[in-house]
Design a protein that fits this description.
This protein is mainly alpha-helical. It contains 20 helices and no strands. It has one domain. The protein is globular and about 55 Å long. About 5% of the residues have low confidence.
Length: about 500
Amino acid sequence: MSNIIKASIWLTLSELFFNLSGYVTHSVLGRTLGPAEYGRYGLIITIATMIVVLIGRGVPVAMSKYLSEVYKTKPLEINHIKKISLEVQAILIGLTTIIYYFLAPVFAYLLRDPSLIPLFKLSTFIIPAFAGASFYVYYFTGIHQFNVQSSLKFFRGLSKIFFIILLAMLFKTKGAIIGHALAPLSVFLLAFSFDRKNKKVLDKKLNISKDVSLDTKTEKETLPKLTHRILLNFAWPITLFMLFYEIMITIDLYMVKGLLQNDTLTGFYNASLTLGRLPFYAFYFLTIILLPKISETTAQKSNKQTKKVMSSAMRFLFMLIVPAITLLAIFAPSALQLFYGSAYSGATEALRILAVGLGFLTVFYILAFVLNGAGHNKIPMWTALGGMIINGILNFYLIPRLGILGAAIATTITSFFIMIIAIIKTEKYVSSFLNFIPILKYFITTAVIGIIASYLPQGEFIFIIWSILLMIFYFVILWLLKEIKKADLETLRSALKK
């Protein structure tokens, strides 16, 4: 378990740095471009990201699952699984990039803004660059090289700040979009160099000679072949899950633009969405750890180990996410002031609602990867499809009546619904992980610090100090309630020492 915590620490630090770089980037862009142009930029990047996630993560996630099942017991399969995955990924990326480019006028027409056509075409370059970087991230995840994965995340944070901000200052919106392609491209090139070194080490470890063919009788007996068909059969539900999920979490932004036809309100809502996803970004590393770990334990049919991993990970998640979303909701005005300036104060109430809703969504997303790792990949797909439809209907009804608050309410209701489904399905098909007594303690303790926070003065920087002090007080109360024990501290100390 200390190894998991050690990986969690490095991945948490890399995720925090990566997302800090993202918020620095958004903060600078929000001020540099202004609310209206920032709203247009947000539309382009979110739809390009949605497309690239469809292709850039579906196949790599499937590859990561198969690698996790064999990297210890049948390491000879690693190169073969990677080769098959790369071939499928290359074809899908190529076709998607071409189709996306020619659909640019359609996207602009749906948003009723022809001026977006050249920006959509320019964003085409994001797709192959992002997909290439994602492929290597999930490759290193699959073989449990979390240290390399963390290094890539750190580097991508630096490259994001450098390319996007520099080019935005020089070329405004077009420059920011080009920067979004160059940042993952630089990650891909670095990952490729890591992979070449890693392959030499792996080949030496496995004593594989370049002259040895994989078709020898001995290797046929020890190397069951992963075929393109097997990979695609597992990957297509994950791919559709990614598509439905991305549409579900961005449809509110598109409908705010389409129904209200107000770039400023679109910029406000994009700002509230970006900050509201702080909990999601902070705990995203759990998907990186849980998918390969659950794949490994379920492949070995180790129910006890699966339960141990799930209980530890979800205890950690609930312990931190409950106070995190509460403090974000209370200090929403200060967070907006810090990252975007006073011009975005109109996004305050939407952010307060989204902080809760996107907290629900974070739990759903993590459990979706647990289900994928356990082989139940169609459950997240159908749940995300249902969430996409529900969110679309609720947004269509609420946005004309309540504006951006309606979009935030719609997303929160939808997120709660799909989170409950994911919890029920995970409990049933993977492992029981809910322990209601500790969760009740988290809510009660959070209520205490929430009441205190509501009486504290807001401020552009002071809210960070308040949040740190309140979180320390939160952990002290949990210690007194014996929810945090000496064994937890010993495990953490051991992991930090390593």
